[in-house]
């Protein structure tokens, strides 16, 4: 079974600074997707960024980017120019892709990020 | 706009009672999922469905059941609620095979006394 590990339960960053959240995963599969989801205090789950394993180029979405290291099975999230609204719980997630359909997402335990003014 | 809704948003019940959490989506998605969120555990998969009449057990399915009689709904039933089932429950859906993106409901907080 696939596992996702987020080794940083809590982190903090000063407003406007850059922060990196770590995620590692364990799988024997070659075709899969990786995700970062954000959960602000409102409890709503919001997709931040998505990476297909077959793509070597790291995904970016505005201030959010990932460092995808397939051989190391590492998938870190970098948040640049941190804003107070980035304060949230961040979950890393893994999904195996199959021709017959995708498997359910497997989530890490989360990293609680606090952005400090 | 299409959406996914959960009800009730908050519920308090007693040990041993049957509880059903509703989940309704209007995207016409085939795939629907139930997760529970607990401090220190992240989100754990309870049950999921890939279409009408299809249901599958997830990582923490004991004490829970689901049924899928139509595309829009996947109710989650706790047959005999236990204090260990106090949690926040999230329903999610996805439609495309290629994107994998989940669309989440707003969560249902269940307290079992």
Number of separate helices of chain A: 0
* CA-based shape of chain A: globular
Oligomer: heterodimer
Give the structural class of chain A: mainly beta
Q: What structural class results from the helix and strand content of chain B?
A: mainly beta
Run of helices and strands of chain B: EEEEEEEEEEE
**Fraction of residues of chain B in helices?**
under 10%
Name the shape of chain B in a single word. globular
Number of E-type strands of chain A? 13
Low-confidence stretches of chain A: none
Give the SSE string of chain A. Answer: EEEEEEEEEEEEE
Largest interface: A-B, 20 and 25 residues
Gyration radius from CA atoms of chain A, angstroms: 14 Å
Report, as a whole number of angstroms, the end-to-end distance of chain A: 41 Å
Write down the overall mean pLDDT of chain B: 93
Work out the helicity level of chain A. Answer: under 10%
Strand content of chain A: over 45%
Give the C-alpha Rg of chain B: 13 Å
Describe the protein's architecture and organization.
The complex is a heterodimer of chains A (117) and B (113). Chain A has strands at residues 3-5, 10-14, 19-21, 24-26, 32-39, 46-52, 60-61, 64-69, 74-79, 88-98, 101-102, 106-107, 111-116. In chain A, strands 2, 5, 6, 10, 11, 12 and 13 form a seven-stranded mixed β-sheet that branches. A four-stranded antiparallel β-sheet of chain A has the order 3-9-8-7, with no helix packed on it. Chain A has a two-stranded antiparallel sheet with strand order 1-4. By secondary structure, chain A is mostly beta strands. The model of chain A has no long low-confidence stretch (mean pLDDT 93). In chain A, a hairpin with a 2-residue loop joins strand 10 (88-98) and strand 11. In chain B, strands 2, 4, 5, 6, 9, 10 and 11 form a seven-stranded mixed β-sheet that branches. A four-stranded antiparallel β-sheet of chain B has the order 1-3-8-7, with no helix packed on it. Chain B has no helices and eleven strands. Chain B starts with a strand and ends with a strand. Chain B is mainly beta and 113 residues long. In chain B, strand 9 (87-94) and strand 10 (103-104) form a beta hairpin. The relative contact order of chain B is 0.32. Helices cover 0% and strands 51% of the residues of chain B.
């Amino acid at each position: 079974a696939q596992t996702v590990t987020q080794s940083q339960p809590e982190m903090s960053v000063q407003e406007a600074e850059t922060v990196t959240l770590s995620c590692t995963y364990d799988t024997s599969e070659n075709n899969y997707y990786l995700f970062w989801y954000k959960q602000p205090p409102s409890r709503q789950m919001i997709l931040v960024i998505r990476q297909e394993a077959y793509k070597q180029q790291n995904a970016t979405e505005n201030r959010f980017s990932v460092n995808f290291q397939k051989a190391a099975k590492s998938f870190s999230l970098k948040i640049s120019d941190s804003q107070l609204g980035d304060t949230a719980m961040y979950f890393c997630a893994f999904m195996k892709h199959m021709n017959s359909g995708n498997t359910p997402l497997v989530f890490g335990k989360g990293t609680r990020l606090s952005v400090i003014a | 706009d299409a959406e996914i809704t959960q009800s009730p948003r908050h519920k308090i019940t007693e040990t041993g009672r049957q509880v059903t959490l509703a989940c309704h989506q209007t995207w016409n998605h085939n795939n629907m999922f139930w997760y529970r969120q607990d401090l220190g555990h992240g989100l754990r998969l309870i049950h999921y469905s890939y279409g009408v009449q299809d249901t599958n057990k997830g990582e923490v399915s004991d004490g829970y059941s689901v049924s899928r009689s139509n595309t829009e709904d996947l109710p989650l039933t706790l047959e005999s609620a236990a204090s260990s089932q106090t949690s926040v429950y999230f329903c999610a859906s996805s439609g495309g095979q290629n994107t994998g993106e989940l669309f989440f409901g707003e969560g249902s907080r269940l307290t079992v006394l």
